[in-house]
Design brief:
The chain is 21% helix and 34% strand. The chain is of the alpha+beta class. Helix 3 crosses helix 4 and helix 4 packs parallel to helix 5. Bound molecules: adenosine-5'-triphosphate. One of its GO terms (biological process) is quaternary ammonium group transport.
Amino acid sequence: MVPARFTVAIGSMDILTLENVTHDFGSTRALDSLSIGVEAGELVCLLGPSGCGKTTALRIAAGLEPLQAGRVLLDGEVVADADQDTPPEARSVGLVFQDYALFPHLTVVDNVAFGLRKLPRRRRRERAMAVLRQVGMAELADAHPHMLSGGQQQRVAVARALAPRPRVMLMDEPFSGLDVTLRHQVRDETLHILKQTGTATLMVTHDPEEAMFMADRVVLMRGGRIVQMGTPAQLYAAPANEFVAAFFGDINRLHGVVRQGRVSTPLGELDAGRLPEGAPANVLVRPEAVRLHPVDGDAASGARTGRVLASRLLGRSSVVHLVLDNPADSGSIQADRAGPHVHARVPGRFLPPENTCVEIDIDPYQAFVFPAHEDAA
Ligand SMILES: Nc1ncnc2c1ncn2[C@@H]1O[C@H](COP(=O)(O)OP(=O)(O)OP(=O)(O)O)[C@@H](O)[C@H]1O
């Protein structure tokens, strides 16, 4: 029978399970009763700021860090608990780290074949070549690592980890050693390979965009605990608190007070949700939720307006810096009487000249109201 303290919400299909894992380094609590599961074929990203415990969780899953409390299961089989700690080589996990750590004296194909010692010699090379074909590196099978670019080395590292058909792939910041263009290309290829092979994967990243690009599910951590877990869309569109809302990039912070179920800010009014009448509220608005309308002549009466401080083209979108006009009837509690500074992000090229006036409204689905006392990012 499963002890009561382990009856956490872990799926029965999980390939990898961490249950109530707590881990201390001296007086530092790195993980605080962490429970996560990775289902068959699923890619889960551990995301969070530096020091939140991501790498420790991954190393415990791999068996590289001795378990102190909790359990680790692979395919439903306990590999670490109070009584046992199966070594990494006996766990059937594929490891990919930031530094690819290929053996410099071995060729590409021999690097990939290295983990296949259980197979007969001829089968080893066949299997290694098959995986190299999957990652598009078969033509360089006889090269040595120093002859490869960083991106090619990383593909070989992925092939080497996949070759023994591990039960789960564990990847720690696998793309962070690559420059931006290569990083995008290699992570795209890696996602395709992991999905084509149906390999369950737990990946660590501190980059929210990378997590959204790669993950079926994101586990956002802070201080050794999970703050929110869900699909990228759930975390982005329904953040549990200010920390989550702000973690996914630039955000405008405004303040207001609840009046008749609404919070009024210089950007517009929003539903106050469950906040009580008179409660101070923090309102977080994504820049892409700020919609701008050029004013030809005078602004419409009652319209929210702002003055353009600067407009910048960022490639696929433009960012417009604005100082908001602060209507006396807004009910807001801005300290800055000139009105707050906000960012609007508009698709494509939209560059209103400095000092011009624009009308503003907001997309309420990308604006979030939280109680003002809540712990901010
Ligand atoms: N070997 C160690 N000895 C002492 N403290 C450690 C050790 N490894 C990690 N820590 C501490 O444990 C906490 C969690 O570290 P961990 O490396 O897991 O975080 P992280 O989220 O992966 O951070 P980063 O993104 O910077 O790699 C941090 O406070 C860190 O300083």
